[in-house]
Amino acid sequence: MIGVVIDFETNGFYGASVLSAAGILISVDWERKKTTRLDTFLRHYYPVEKWNPYAQEVNGLSAAQIQILREDGEYPLYFREDQSFFEFCSNANFAVAHNAKFDRSFLSLSIPWLCTMEICGGKLVDAVKRRGIKVKESELHQALYDAKMCLKLFEYVFEHQHKYLKSAIINKLPESSIV
C-alpha cells in the first residue's frame, strides 16, 4: 500500500497561497510492519496575494528566499497553477499530515487522510519530542523537514500501534483499493 506524507508552508491560514509543498511517498507493508521511502517532492512558490509578515516570521520564506530555493526551477510560479504535486500523490492510497484538516484544504485528494496531530496530540515539535524523536527546532516550519518529522511520527505509531493504524486506514478505503 502506498502513502504520501504531506506538509505545506503557506502565506497565512486557510485560503492563503502555498509557498512550499513537500511530500514523501512511502510503501507500507502491513504484514512485515515495514515502511519504505519511495520518492520525495519539494517545490517553492510565490504567493498570489500580498506577503503576510506573520507567516514570514514563522516559515522564514520571503521573495528572495524563494528565488534562491527555486534554483531557476522550470515549474509554475504559483502552487495553484502546478499540477505536479497532485500527480506526485496520484498513486497514493492514503495521505498523512500533521494537522491534516489544514493541509487537505490546499490539496483535494480523494483518499483517506490520517492526522498525526489527532493521533499524537499537540504541535509537531511536542509530539515528536514526547516520543523520543530528535528534532532540530531551527529546521521546523520548512515543508520537507516537517514532512520528515511527520513521517517519523507515522512510523512510531506504525511500530507501537500497528493494529490501530492499519484499521484506521483500511476502514476508510474503498473495498476496490484494499490489497
Automatic annotation (TrEMBL):
Q: Which SUPFAM superfamilies match?
A: Ribonuclease H-like (SSF53098)
GO BP of this protein: DNA metabolic process
Superkingdom, according to UniProt?
A: Bacteria
Exonuclease domain residues are 4-163
GO molecular-function annotation terms? Answer: exonuclease activity; nucleic acid binding
Record key words, sorted: Exonuclease, Hydrolase, Nuclease
InterPro entries listed in its UniProt record: Ribonucl_H, RNaseH-like_sf, RNaseH_sf
Q: Is ATP-binding one of the keywords?
A: no
Q: What is this protein called?
A: 3'-5' exonuclease
Q: Which organism is it from?
A: Desulfolutivibrio sulfodismutans
